[in-house]
DNA sequence: CAACATATCT
DNA sequence: CAGATATGTT
């Protein structure tokens, strides 16, 4: 790698490595040269390296190799293939939260950039003097240990002088110890345990077990000449989503770090990383569970939930699923059980989940608010609380000046209250918010206990109302356009959802125990009353699927492959044995009482072909069980069966854009190993003769820069309008270049059903089947 | 001893 | 606080 050496060949040097990405070669060169010229005057103290790359692809491949050596990334917005923000997201996905500054002549991109997690935005053309700010930022990030791997050796002192900032590299560990007492390395604990305090061998092996920066297999090529790259990984939402997916997939009680790590398949993650995160996650869940049990009497009454999900059998698997665990999760869910099982008290969320025009949480959220904001639609079952994208994203007009984009914690109550008609609650923020606000709107991180919240980014528990970002536990009645995790009843989500989410509507992956949902992607077991457009597995009652289905799914309707023991199914694809009462439009074998429009094979009594099939099905011929061995291919083919195409399904990104789901999400996987091509970079060998004063580097002056999250790397300070799948593999691409739309829902959206339809199982199924016919 | 859980540190 | 690291346990 052509530029790698300069990173390592100095013994004590503050190195700043800036990567500039721009497809305009002229600008790129000017920019790079200027940056190089702005080297700090004392080149023995600070060394600046500019890596110039011409496009996003090259930027990513460079990062593969030098991820941990890049302190700052400056990217143009408009570039072919992938714009600067897409690049940012991709970087975040693959390498964590590196500081990215977006450049564009288009000031309209400023807000988008900051919303999407860019650390800064700068308008082209750029004055040379402004470029020093890049170094300020790079230094700041480096100092805070947010951006690069050198965190272990970094001070966190905010007032550290530049001389103290000097970085040492591992091959100078001895030097480091003598020069900076703070940095005395600890003995390796395992070696201490295992070898009576003799930490030499294991310490060495561990210390030098460098994770490869290029996203390789992580096989730990040891090289004493390389620095120990122990970066502080950032659990971005995307990464956390993957983590959650892993937990879902493995099973909550069986999810251990190693398995999670294997599932996640993220090259730069270590088992320790996962273990640490898992620990925090468990703590989080426990906290939420405790809160839930404490607050359940008035915050989240099961009344509303139960009244919508009246089937006891539906609720049951819910709780039984995890009771084996004696860990935190068992505790958590047992709490949840009581949480859901207790008779409700009619406050708040039950109204959200009910078909009533009464005020939702009348003590907190007047009906006028609901009407005015169009945020809630009380007539939707399961609270498909679709957010009006326009109103949420329209920062102009009357909301200007009322919203804070950059001040995450300010208590700006009543700033938006008038717009929301909501007294002194209802602030809005673009960045992280961490307080107990009612009805706030946030485009950044949100913390617990935020009722009626609307968020575009990481949000955690007990937020009732809605969100447009990541959601964690116990968020009833919400609508999410990002990831959502468990125990979120009555939600609508456009991305991944995990367990225990009844009455939901999802456009992404769903896992077990989610009754009465509608989804457009993969679903796993024990999901009753679900409607799905992709793969479904066993034990899903009353479903409607447009993808593969497996066992034990009574009363389903499917448009693709079905396997055995599916009672009362309707299928438009292949069916396998023992599916009584089916209706099929494709191949079917061993089916009892079915109605088929294509090839049927043996042991299909009471079945019918197209000429009279539908009627026979409606006549309930599965009760007239008469074996009628048939030759295959006997039935007439049913032409032009309308099968909803996966390609037509839509996903919504965090900002409400519709994204076409082009590929099967099951193909989605992280692949950090691809694209190993050589990195071509341009280095500029210019004399460092531009003297820039020290204080220039450390004083941020007010000008037309906008900075967001100078403490980059904090996951809650970041925003993004995309989620995991978007940024990753070739097999799952969503374009963000769609106009904002909201209503392209070419599927059976159960959330639009009348609540009474869902209150009765048969009515419910009728709705389903009628919809299919 | 690897892997896990938990405690503590930064 | 989030993530890393140390320590105890299986």
Automatic annotation (TrEMBL):
<keyword id="KW-0010">Activator</keyword>
<dbReference type="InterPro" id="IPR045279">
    <property type="entry name" value="ARR-like"/>
</dbReference>
<feature type="compositionally biased region" description="Polar residues">
    <location>
        <begin position="190"/>
        <end position="203"/>
    </location>
</feature>
<dbReference type="InterPro" id="IPR006447">
    <property type="entry name" value="Myb_dom_plants"/>
</dbReference>
<keyword id="KW-0539">Nucleus</keyword>
<dbReference type="InterPro" id="IPR009057">
    <property type="entry name" value="Homeodomain-like_sf"/>
</dbReference>
<dbReference type="Pfam" id="PF00249">
    <property type="entry name" value="Myb_DNA-binding"/>
</dbReference>
<dbReference type="GO" id="GO:0003677">
    <property type="term" value="F:DNA binding"/>
</dbReference>
<feature type="region of interest" description="Disordered">
    <location>
        <begin position="479"/>
        <end position="532"/>
    </location>
</feature>
<dbReference type="InterPro" id="IPR017930">
    <property type="entry name" value="Myb_dom"/>
</dbReference>
<dbReference type="InterPro" id="IPR001005">
    <property type="entry name" value="SANT/Myb"/>
</dbReference>
<feature type="domain" description="Response regulatory">
    <location>
        <begin position="17"/>
        <end position="139"/>
    </location>
</feature>
<feature type="domain" description="HTH myb-type">
    <location>
        <begin position="234"/>
        <end position="286"/>
    </location>
</feature>
<dbReference type="InterPro" id="IPR001789">
    <property type="entry name" value="Sig_transdc_resp-reg_receiver"/>
</dbReference>
<dbReference type="GO" id="GO:0005634">
    <property type="term" value="C:nucleus"/>
</dbReference>
<dbReference type="GO" id="GO:0009736">
    <property type="term" value="P:cytokinin-activated signaling pathway"/>
</dbReference>
<dbReference type="Pfam" id="PF00072">
    <property type="entry name" value="Response_reg"/>
</dbReference>
<feature type="region of interest" description="Disordered">
    <location>
        <begin position="181"/>
        <end position="227"/>
    </location>
</feature>
<keyword id="KW-0805">Transcription regulation</keyword>
<protein>
    <recommendedName>
        <fullName>Response regulatory domain-containing protein</fullName>
    </recommendedName>
</protein>
<feature type="region of interest" description="Disordered">
    <location>
        <begin position="355"/>
        <end position="375"/>
    </location>
</feature>
<keyword id="KW-0597">Phosphoprotein</keyword>
<dbReference type="InterPro" id="IPR011006">
    <property type="entry name" value="CheY-like_superfamily"/>
</dbReference>
<keyword id="KW-0804">Transcription</keyword>
<dbReference type="GO" id="GO:0000160">
    <property type="term" value="P:phosphorelay signal transduction system"/>
</dbReference>
<keyword id="KW-0902">Two-component regulatory system</keyword>
<feature type="modified residue" description="4-aspartylphosphate">
    <location>
        <position position="76"/>
    </location>
</feature>
